[in-house]
Structures are given as C-alpha cells and as structure tokens.
Task: inverse folding
C-alpha cells in the first residue's frame, strides 16, 4: 500500500509484492492472478482505510452541518497525518487513471462518486434544516472535494505546511461559514 501511494498503482508489480512478502511470484499470482486485480485490491483496501479514517470518525455525529464539519476535521486530519506516505491514495489514483479507460479507472470513479454522494447528502440535510443557506448541495460537495485534493497536492508536491489550515478555511467558506478573518492574514 505504501509503495503504491508513492509509485502509483502502475508502479506496483506482482514481483515487488512477492519480494516484499518473501514469496515467489507464483505464490502471489495465485490470489491475484493479474496486475490489474492487484491494483483493484490495493485500491479497495485504501478506500477501506479512508472510510475508517474519515467517515467512521464522523458517522456518529448529528447529520447535516455538524457532520459536515466533523467530516472536514477528520479528512484534513487524515491528510495532515500522512496516513499514506504519498498522500491521499484515492486522489493519487484519480490523477493516475483519470484519462485511462478500464476497470481501475471505473473503481476509482465509483469511490469518488460514493464520497461525493456522502458529502452532497449531508449538505442537503444541512440546507433542509436551515443550517446552510438554500444552496446547491452538489456544489458544496464539489468544492469541499476539490479543496481536499488541493490540500493533498500542496502538502505532497510543494511541502506546504500551512495547506491543512488553508484548506480548513476554504472548506468553511464552501459551507458558507465565515472563518475568522484574522486567520486569513499572510504569514
């Protein structure tokens, strides 16, 4: 998993996995059969880890705005702690496979669509409860997701130590919540 987060799913091979496990290639091919099946298994596991790190931490919170804020906190914490050394596994996989047809792209797309749906559903609850103004929940979900991808890139590509806090302020604005303007000062 860690290797795939750094080298990408294309950078993972049956031979590398066999070597790291101290097994023969034949011993690894048995359970996986092909590189594509190995990639899909790695992606599935990464999504399970993301779900545990982000959704499971927020699931018990009151639906709507309170849960959206809990999701933001958990998501940014996940990115800040570098759960995977290459950053968000799903974001990295999306960049790697966004222009390629096939089962891996479809699996990435399903994972991202599911997460977008979760965010949109929470935004709908918040709008219906009057916790957010009458806005397009799909737009709120899109903006929060785009900001998280930007935070991941800023941390991983540029080593921006302020990316998580900048992302938090941007996400709060996407929720139509005004973050403390003093926090917006450059520094």
Result:
């Amino acid at each position: 998993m860690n290797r795939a987060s750094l080298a990408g799913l294309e950078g993972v091979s049956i031979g590398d996995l066999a070597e790291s496990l101290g097994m023969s290639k034949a011993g690894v091919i048995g359970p996986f059969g092909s590189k594509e099946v190995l990639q899909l298994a790695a992606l599935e596991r990464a999504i399970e880890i993301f779900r545990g790190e982000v959704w499971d931490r927020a699931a018990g919170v009151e639906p709507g705005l309170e849960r959206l804020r809990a999701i933001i906190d958990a998501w940014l914490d996940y990115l800040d702690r570098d759960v995977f050394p290459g950053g968000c596994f799903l974001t990295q996989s999306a960049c790697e496979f966004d222009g390629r047809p096939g089962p891996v792209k479809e699996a990435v797309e399903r994972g991202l669509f599911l997460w977008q749906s979760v965010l949109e559903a929470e935004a709908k609850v918040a709008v219906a409860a009057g916790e957010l103004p009458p806005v397009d929940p799909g737009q709120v979900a899109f903006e929060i997701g785009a900001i998280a991808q930007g935070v991941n890139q800023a941390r991983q590509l540029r080593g921006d130590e302020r990316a998580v806090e900048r992302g938090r302020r941007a996400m709060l604005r996407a929720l139509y919540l005004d973050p403390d303007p003093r926090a917006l000062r450059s520094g």
In short: Residues 40-184 form a domain with the Tetracycline Repressor; domain 2 fold (CATH 1.10.357.10). The chain has a mean pLDDT of 87. The two ends are 36 Å apart (CA to CA). The chain has nine helices and no strands.
